[in-house]
Amino acid sequence: GGPRRLLLISNSTLHGGGYLGHCQKHIQSFLGQKVKRVLFIPYALHDRDAYARTAREKFESLGYGLDSIHESCDPVDAVRKSEAIFIGGGNTFRLLKALYDNRLIHEIRKRVLEDGIPYMGSSAGTNVATISINTTNDMPIVYPPSLQALGLVPFNINPHYLDPDIKRTHMGETREERIRQYHEEPNTPPVLGLREGTMLLVEGDKATLQGVTGARLFLRGKKPTEHEPGTDFSFLLTDSNPVN
């Protein structure tokens, strides 16, 4: 075993760069030299073969082999034998339903929280690492049996967080308003809004914001706060709901 190790990335592709290009150095630092192969979970997209080819090409260029779980005849066994897990982005509802359908929620939790293997998520893969997918931006195109997710951290994340554009005439709800509506419900945990180009590194009971843009933290009953890369978010790991 060992302490949990998570790299929770807001987005797979940053404007002007290729797939995982903006965070490839973070990935190499996170996985290190002990990991030889990564188990990829492409369930968030419909074309799993094409998705696996994209991910395999990238990880091989970084020096890691990649096995896609959809090519395995026994997904549970694939998770049990994995050295590291990477869940990619796409539709969060589709992803979570497939994790439930393949009986992988418990298995992934065990491998990450008890056995200490590294877990990487991007976008939807970051959403499902949290308590629930209540704060995803995606449409509910399928119906998972629950909105409860892997629970690798005791709070929620909103990947691709967008700030309000004061120049736009569109009068729809901003991301901040939607998160505030979520917090109008009782006993809702903190929500960390990760902007494009930002990621959260979790090592045991330490959580650090990394990347280039920053994040916005929403606590129920409090005004949201702004945070730069390098911020220590460890308190989110020890107190799942600091505001009742």
TrEMBL record:
GO terms for biological process: proteolysis. This is dipeptidase E. CDD domains: GAT1_Peptidase_E (cd03146). It catalyses: Dipeptidase E catalyzes the hydrolysis of dipeptides Asp-|-Xaa. It does not act on peptides with N-terminal Glu, Asn or Gln, nor does it cleave isoaspartyl peptides. One of its GO terms (molecular function) is serine-type peptidase activity. It is found in: Cytoplasm. GO terms for cellular component: cytoplasm. Hydrolyzes dipeptides containing N-terminal aspartate residues. Its EC number is 3.4.13.21. The keyword Cytoplasm applies. Keywords: Cytoplasm, Dipeptidase, Hydrolase, Protease, Serine protease. It is an enzyme of class 3 (hydrolase). It comes from Erythrocercus mccallii. InterPro entries: Class_I_gatase-like, Peptidase_S51. Belongs to the peptidase S51 family. Transmembrane segments: none annotated. It holds the Pfam family Peptidase_S51.
